[in-house]
From TrEMBL:
Gene3D superfamilies in UniProt: VSR Endonuclease
Organism: Sphingomonas pseudosanguinis
Signal peptide: none
PANTHER family (UniProt xref): BLL0828 PROTEIN
Name of the molecule in the record: Very-short-patch-repair endonuclease
Length: 142
């Protein structure tokens, strides 16, 4: 999939600059997502129409935004951005820098719930959980 095919000139350098200038909470969350869900491809500062998504997973149609202090005064911009992202078929999870830095496990739990909700409790397990140790299927009797 070519992400930049229909993007305006300057999109690639802008995305690269955003990745280079990423905040510590963004870097920390991206690292945790890639470690916790290695079977999913997480992209960082990816263009999505006229916007850039902090973290994006195409297969799960999920955008994760890590909000710093500036987002408190950019409510109209954030609302139009979320509307656009929703029209494109993506769900958005917003977390704050403080949440990522102080409660990373809680943020990952919130993301896990969102991943499960996508297809009605489809089995998306974080790494390290008891994956496939039981061959029991739903409805089987112990």
């Amino acid at each position: 999939m070519r992400l930049y095919e229909k993007q305006p000139i300057g999109t690639v350098p802008r995305a690269r600059q955003l990745r280079r200038d990423a905040s510590e909470p963004e870097r920390r969350l991206l690292r945790a997502l890639r470690e916790t869900y290695p079977h999913l491809k997480w992209r960082h500062q990816t263009p999505l129409g006229p916007f850039f998504a902090d973290m994006l997973c195409f297969s799960e149609k999920l955008v994760i935004e890590v909000d710093g202090d500036t987002h408190a005064v950019e409510e109209d911009y954030d609302a139009s951005r979320e509307d656009f992202i929703a029209r494109e078929g993506y769900r958005t999870i917003r977390v704050t820098n403080a949440e990522v830095m102080q409660n990373l496990e809680g943020v990952l739990t919130q993301i896990s719930f969102s991943l499960r909700e996508k297809e009605g409790a489809r089995a998306v397990q974080p790494r390290g959980k008891d994956e496939g140790s039981s061959s029991k299927k739903k409805g089987d009797v112990a």
